[in-house]
Structures are given as C-alpha cells and as structure tokens.
C-alpha cells in the first residue's frame, strides 16, 4: 500500500506546462485502428479465379497474418510522445530571492564649525568634514547594492546627489563639498526634510511605475516592495558637529514628526569634541522646544553616536550597517524539475522496438 500511495501522490504532484497537448491523446489509437482494419481486410474471402494458368497460384499457401505487437508498440510510443509534448514537470525547493538594497540618505553638515582640525586621518591632522567625507566614501563602497542620496546643509540645505546605485559616485560627490559652501549656520530641520523628500520622491516614482501598464503585465502590477515598505526600508544618516539648529524654514521638531510618520529611521553621528547632552533646546527661529541629536534618533527609532575620532566614526557606520543589512525578501518562486525527457526517450525506444519487431517477422516465416 505504501508504494501505491507514494505513486499516487507523485502522480498528483505532476504539473503540465502545456496541458492542451493532452487533447492529442486519441491519436495514440491510430496504429491499433489501422491494424484492425488490415486484419478485417485479410479476413474477407478472396475471389476464385479458374483460369488454367492460375492453377499454381490457387494452390499456394495462404499469406501469414501480420504480428499484432508492432501496432501496440506504436500506440504506446505515440502516447509517450503526447505526454512529452505536454511537458510534465514537478515543483522543487523554493528559490531564494535576491537580496534587496536599502535607500540610504546621508546628510552632511558643511557649517563653519566643521572646519576645525581636531581629528586625524592616516596620522595627519584633518578637519571634521574631511574625515566625515572619507568615512562615508568607504562606507558607500562597502555597501554595494544600496542606493545612496547625498544632502549637504549649512544655512541652506541642497541635494548634492539624488538616489543612485553608483556608490563610487556618491563618495566622489561627497569629496567635492567644502566648509561654508552653503552658509555658516545650521539648518538642521531643512536638511532632514530634504532628505525625507528624496525618499518620498522615490516612493512616488515607484507608484507611477507600478501603475503604468507594461507588455509584461498589462494590469500594471509589478513585483517588488510596496511604497509603504519602501519608506520603512529607508534610513537617514546625519553627520554634524552639534545638534542645535539656528536657521531654516522647517523646524527640527516638524521634520522629525514627518520622519516618524513616514517610518524612516534617523541615525545621528556627532563629530564634535563634546557629546550631545541629550535634551531639547529652544531658539527664537522656532516656536517650542526642538529635539537635539539624541532625541532625533530616539524619536525615529534610530541611534545616536558620539564620534570624537576617525576610528569612532568608522565604528559608528559599521554599526549602522550591521543594524540595517541588505533585505532578504521571502521566496516567491519554486524550482521546476522538467520530466519531458523520460516519456520522449520511452516513446523513441518503443517506436524502434516496433520497427525491429516488424523486421524480424518476415524472417520468422521462412
């Protein structure tokens, strides 16, 4: 019973890539019908000719009937060919989906205080901005497959590089920044809002691509993560030497509220000489208390890092990378084991066997 159960379950698991080919199964009966018609023709009485010159033919033995095995073999061969044409297959193991990169938006402070040479790089004094640029370039090169956007800010915030998979270009563009390029002050809220705008722009583009019909999918559906999932997979990394925003049109509190609404985590890396105290502050430019670097990270689900050296900055970005590895979505496809070769070989073998049986039949009559 176990063998029959296994056989039944195996047959039930079979799938057919071309099931319409099974409509050709009746063709397998053609050799049997042809052989039956030939036997009926042989069974009919032959006319008796009484001409004297045909007397010898009338005394000849009756012809032998054709063997019945070749038609049966040909019918089985045609049956196997039809099954091979239907392409039987069996599902295998799940295929692991390719890992997906993350959207990483880096915010680099270019205010005047970033020009202080209180850090070292390769044994030589370096400014805070120079170390941040080199650390980011190394981090981007190590994150192949992620998409980077770069926002620089001082008194104003500007998009230096829109989201791109070219990690080398991201590092090179960061190296072009100069202290004071965007003004001497710190528009922290504007920088966060502009970074979130890069994420939102990518989500809108994903919506348009998903809504646009294509030849592959006329309904417009496309594989991949949804816009809501895309926002949750994006992070912001903020490099600055202080958590106080003293200018800008958007307050840090409003920008953080928007990040929380979008589900985007913000990781803050302070490159100053004194760690952030971790308390809100007030400035005349905004109404109400504003969050500092610690509170920004805590409010969005990120993490605050105090990096008073180049090694501390490298450790911070390594930890951020470990907390945000490449995404491994669940598999959606299974491996397919094609089985059409077996019925094809069986059909060829049966057809050759039928030809061999027909060939030895005349010799056996001698």
Name the descriptors.
alpha/beta; 366 residues; 12 helices; 16% strand; 43% helix; Rossmann fold; 6-stranded mixed beta sheet; 3-stranded antiparallel beta sheet; rod-shaped
Structure description:
Helix content is 43%, strand content 16%. It is built from twelve helices and eleven strands. α2 packs antiparallel against α4. It has helices spanning 2-12, 30-43, 55-58, 69-85, 128-141, 167-175, 188-211, 227-232, 252-262, 293-300, 310-323, 341-365; strands spanning 15-16, 88-95, 103-109, 119-121, 124-126, 147-153, 157-164, 234-240, 265-270, 304-306, 333-338. It has 366 residues and is α/β, with parallel strands linked by helices. The strands form three sheets. A six-stranded mixed β-sheet has the order 7-6-3-8-9-10, with helices on both faces. A three-stranded antiparallel β-sheet has the order 1-2-11. The longest helix is centred in the last third of the chain and has 25 residues, at 341-365. The chain has two domains: 68-92 and 337-366; 103-323, 3-Layer(aba) Sandwich (Rossmann fold), CATH 3.40.50. It is rod-shaped, with a radius of gyration of 39 Å.
Summarize the structure.
By secondary structure, this protein is α/β, with parallel strands linked by helices.
CATH superfamily of the largest domain: von Willebrand factor, type A domain
* Shape summary: rod-shaped
What does the radius of gyration come to? 39 Å
Q: Per CATH, what is the topology of the largest domain?
A: Rossmann fold
Low-confidence stretches: 207-230
Approximately what portion of the residues adopt beta-strand conformation?
15-25%
What integer is the average pLDDT? 80
Structural class: alpha/beta
Q: What is the CATH architecture assignment of the largest domain?
A: 3-Layer(aba) Sandwich
- Provide the domain count: 2
Give a quick account of the main beta sheet: strands, pairing sense, barrel closure: 6 strands, mixed
SSE string, helices as H and strands as E: HEHHHEEEEHEEHHHEHEHEHEH
What is the CA-CA span between the terminal residues? 49 Å
Query: Helix count, per DSSP?
Result: 12
- The CATH class assignment of the largest domain is Alpha Beta
Estimate percent helicity: 40-55%
| Side-by-side strand order of the widest sheet | 7-6-3-8-9-10
Number of strands: 11
